[in-house]
Amino acid sequence: MAKVLYYCLLLPLSYLPMAVLYGISSGLYWLSFRLVGYRVAIVRDNIQRSFPDWGEERVDEQVEKFYRYFFDTLAESIKLFSMSEAEAVARCNVSNPELLDPLVNAGKSIIAVGAHYSNWEIAGISFPAIFPRLQVMAVYSPLKNDAADQIARANRQRNGTRLVSRRVIKAYFERPRQQPALEFFVADQSPSNVIWQKIHWTTFLNQPTGFLAGPERFAVRHDTPIYYMKLRMVKRGHYLGELQRISDDPTSTTPGEITEAYVRILEEEIQRDPTPWLWTHRRWKREVPPEVAEQLQHQAYLPPEYER
Q1: 220-256 pLDDT, tens digit each
Q2: E-strand spans in 268-307?
Q3: 80 — phi, psi (to 5°)?
Q4: CA-CA-CA-CA dihedral for 258, 260, 262, 268, to nearest 10
Q5: Angle of CA points 228, 50, 113, to nearest 5°
Q6: Binning pLDDT at 50, 70 and 90, where does residue 170 land?
Q7: How far apart are CA 216 and CA 308, in angstroms?
Q8: pLDDT(193) > 80
Q9: How far apart are CA 239 and CA 254, in angstroms?
Q10: Which residues make beta-bridge pairs with 137?
Q11: DSSP letters along 57-88, please?
C-alpha cells in the first residue's frame, strides 16, 4: 500500500509547482485544523505551558501560525521526492560551513545536534553538497511499515546522506570512520529511558523537562567535537542553517554541560520564533520524578549519569 501511495500519489504530486502544493497545504490546514481539530488540544496546552504569561488571544494566534506552518512543511516534504540537489541547496543553505574546516583538516568528525524545528527534510537533501569533505550522517528511527521505511530512506539518502538507525548507533560509533563525518542527532524528543538518573533534567520553557543524553555521551566517549545546527526559516520554503560551537574538547566538560548548552540554545530559538517547533509532539508526557522536582528548585540542572 505504501508503494502504491508513493508512485500513484506522492511522486506525481511532487512534480507540481511549489505554489500549487502550498495551495493544497492550505486546504489541508482548513480541513485538519479548522474542521477536525487535529491535536489542537495538545498544541494549545504545550504553548500555554511554555508561555504562561501569554493571554488566550495570543495563544490562539500562535496555534494558528503553527498549523499553517506545519502543513506547509508537508507540502515541502512532498516536493522533496523530485527536488534536485541544486534547488535543495537554494532552499536550505548554511551560513558558516567553514567553521568546521580546522576540524576536517585535522581528520576529525563532528557531532551536530538539532531539534524538531524548521524543515530538516530539506537539509538532509542539501547538506551533502554544502559539506563535500564530510560524510553527512543522520540518526533516525525506522518506520514501522517496511515499505514506507524503504521509500523514506531512499529519498533521504539519494544525495549522499547516510542514515543510521538509532538501534545500532552505539555500534556505528565503535567502528572507525572511512572519512570525517558530520553526525546529526535530533535530540529534543521525550526520553524513553526508564531510569530517570540516565536522563538530563532541567527547566525548559518554564517547566521541568527531561532530555536525551546520547549526543553528549557519544561526544565525550569518542572525543568528538559537538556543535548546534540552528535552522531558521528565512521565508516560506527557504531555510538557513548556522553552526554554533558547543565544545571542541568534550572530554574536558563536566557531566551535563554539553546537554545543558544544547537546551539553552534550543530554548532561545523557540522563544525567538515559536512557530517552526513541532508543538503536536507530547513533549511533556513523561512524569517528573519527585526527586527531580525537588532538586531543580535548588540547582540549574541534574546531569545524566553515564560512564565517561
Answers
A1: 999 999 999 999 999 999 999 999 999 999 999 999 9
A2: 301-302
A3: -65, -25
A4: -150
A5: 15
A6: very high
A7: 10
A8: no
A9: 33
A10: 162, 183
A11: HHHHHHHHHHHHHHHHHHHHHHHTTT--HHHH
DSSP 254: P
Cβ neighbours for 192, distance < 8 A, ≥ 6 positions apart: none
Model pLDDT, residue 276: 97
- What is the separation, in whole angstroms, between the first and last Cα of the chain? 46
Long-range contacts of 57-61 (CB under 8 A, 24+ apart): none
Question: What does pTM read for this prediction?
Answer: 0.95
Query: If you search the block for the grid coordinates 531543580, which residue do you land on?
Result: 296
- Is 188 in contact with 116 (CB distance < 8 Å)? yes
Other Cβ atoms less than 10 A from the Cβ of 279: the count is 24
Q: Is the pLDDT of residue 194 over 80?
A: no
Residue 230, Cβ neighbours under 10 Å: how many?
22
Three-state SS for 168? helix
Q: Give the strand pairing for 200-204 and 207-211.
A: antiparallel
pLDDT band at 98 (very low <50, low <70, confident <90, very high): very high
